[in-house]
Amino acid sequence: MIYITQLIYIKEGQENVFHEFEDIAIPIISRYNGRLLLRIRPSENAFIEYSIDKPYEIHLVEFDTEQDFENFKQDKERMKFLHLKDQSIKASILFKGIKLS
Fold first, then answer.
1. Which of 21, 38, 36 is nearest to 77 (CA)?
2. ∠ CA 3-9-12 to the nearest 5 degrees?
């Protein structure tokens, strides 16, 4: 099992375009043995301390294998809509990890 945490930074005024992309991409996760565990849009008062820009959204996703994650990224339907992602996302930071016992 691998875990993907992503901090997502949106271009100002492109929130609706981002939501359009997410409406397409998120359901595709399950096709590749993945599960969206958390999708958080933190409010201003949710930040106690920070030394980086505050993300618009935080996603936590798990996939059974690294190959499942790679297959998700190459999904043909998802790739048709990457222009929406490019139009709306300023930057993202992706962390890969494993569950510790």
1. 21
2. 155
Q: Which two tokens stand for residue 101?
A: 């016992």
Report CA dihedral (13, 21, 41, 14) to the nearest 10 degrees. 0
Sign of the CA dihedral running 71, 67, 69, 86: negative
Is residue 74 within 8 A of residue 80, CB to CB? The reply is no
Q: Which two tokens stand for residue 96?
A: 């890969």
What is the second-level CATH architecture of the domain 2-97? 2-Layer Sandwich (3.30)
Residues 36 and 59: their CA atoms lie apart, in Å, by 7
23, two tokens: 């409406």
Residues 36-79 pLDDT 10s? 999 999 998 999 999 999 999 999 999 999 999 999 999 999 99
The structural domains of the chain, with segments of one domain joined by +, span: 2-97
